[in-house]
Amino acid sequence: MIKIFPTIQIKELDAYTIENEPVASIDLMERASQALAKTISERWNTETPFTVFAGPGNNGGDALAVSRLLAQQGYRVEVYLFNTKGSLSPDCETNKKRLTELSGIDFHEITTQFVPPELTARHVVLDGLFGSGLNKPLSGGFAAVVKYINSSPATVVALDVPSGLMGEDNTYNIQANIIRADLTLSLQLPKLAFLFAENEQFVGEWQLLDIGLSEEAINEKETDFALTEHGDMPPMLKVRSKFAYKGNFGRALLIAGSQGMAGASVLAARACLRSGIGLLTVHIPFCNNFIVQTSVPEAMTEIDINDVRFSCATDTDDYQAVGIGPGLGKAGDTEAALLEQIESCQTPMVVDADALNLLGEHRSYIGRLPKGSILTPHPKELERLVGKCQNSYERLTKARELAKSAGVYIILKGAYSVIIAPSGKCWFNPTGNPGMATGGSGDVLTGVVLALLAQGYDAETAARMAAYVHGLAGDIACKKHGAMGMTAGDIVTCLPLAWRMLEEKL
């Protein structure tokens, strides 16, 4: 996994590396700049004109060093260094001197008046105005420069972080004064802000560059945030014994569906069966029985007393996990049955869809869920539980508070679905694609989580692995059908291949 540190801790990692490697600060900057220049030169040839905007701090120092390295490789580089207060950081000053010693460099140091250069669609802009140390919104002249760059047709590459973007919380930032990068080249580690939907317009595509910060310090330093890597999952998968039988892989109960919503129970049931469950029972109203029995012959059914919806809590003692919510509806007797089910259930529950919406009216019941239960809300469902949120940062903060106070695990669904533990630990998931933004995709995830919980995986592992494999199956489906053409059923169909990919890496 890749740790995600708040920006203040990244500074500490820099300082630790400088002190303990040991390496001079200017040499660490040179190392970072070499990694940046190498990546840039792999993407653009020497025919591409580069315009570089450098600020007075160390991010500006990086930009000046990159300019020098590119110029030495034969690139046409025009550099604007903004030194409006007559004070540069020591490393920025050193890199200014190194750059100006090069012959033929097109260098402008801006102290008062700035005449903007022409930026065409052929140009690549390197943004080195401000790095991750920024702690207040840009204003004045720098805001004007940002707006000028954003209004141009040029391709924009941000060095480490788009200027104006805070590393974590941008609640009180001014969006118009943030660079809109096409590519962000982040040094060593990602910033939390990169993983939030509303910041995609600023970050664009992002790529991590290894600059050799101390591995020892990274390993030792604690953080609550991490990005799951592809190699993390295979070791979590349990090896099946040669003498195993269906009883070894758990019994699961899925309470799902209502009149007109049989599909939700079918998708969740099929996903559960494609994720290793030993035995699955689906609790459904009579009106959906024929559909489920025909569509999912491997599952057993249990019929509710109501013909068209879930209306009566059922005995869960024989099951290792219970899934509830897909396609339930929100009728009064369904609501009462859900609350009774929570009160009586002793086994971990996976709570999704309408079950979450109903819990939004009875928030005290979240804390009554059995130990090891997992909620799987999308952002709107989460807000019904925790109240309105201005942005993803606030949403994550409130979701962590809910996980801690109620003692539940949460899979907050999105482009980087985040798995939140009651401890406050968060793992962002790297798999998945926009083709999965379609009805039924969440039902599939419920089925996968349910299967893993019933097989005896702990809640943290079940949530992380389910989110990963669900996204991986979605990625396989997307390659096959395209983002526009894929359906939730395609994700189910691709689950076996996703699981096989993990098994083959064991």
Provide a short characterization of the protein structure.
This protein has helices at 7-20, 25-43, 58-72, 90-100, 140-151, 200-203, 215-220, 262-273, 289-295, 332-344, 353-359, 379-386, 392-406, 441-454, 459-481, 488-503; strands at 2-4, 50-54, 77-82, 106-110, 124-128, 155-159, 183-187, 205-209, 225-227, 251-255, 279-284, 300-303, 321-324, 349-351, 374-375, 409-412, 418-420, 426-428. With 506 residues, the protein is α/β, with parallel strands linked by helices.
> In CATH, what is the homologous superfamily of the largest domain?
Ribokinase
Euclidean distance between termini CA atoms? 17 Å
For the biggest β-sheet, the strand order reads 1-9-18-17-16-15-14-13-10-11-12
The number of strands is 18
What share of the residues lie within helices?
Answer: 25-40%
Determine the strand fraction and express it as a percent band: 15-25%
CATH architecture classification of the largest domain: 3-Layer(aba) Sandwich
> What would you call the structural class?
alpha/beta
Q: Name the poorly predicted regions.
A: none
Largest sheet: 11 strands, mixed
Tally of helical runs: 16
The CATH class designation of the largest domain is Alpha Beta
Output the CATH topology of the largest domain.
UDP-N-acetylmuramoyl-L-alanine:D-glutamate ligase
Q: What is the molecular shape?
A: elongated
Radius of gyration: 26 Å
The count of domains is: 2
Indicate the mean pLDDT: 97
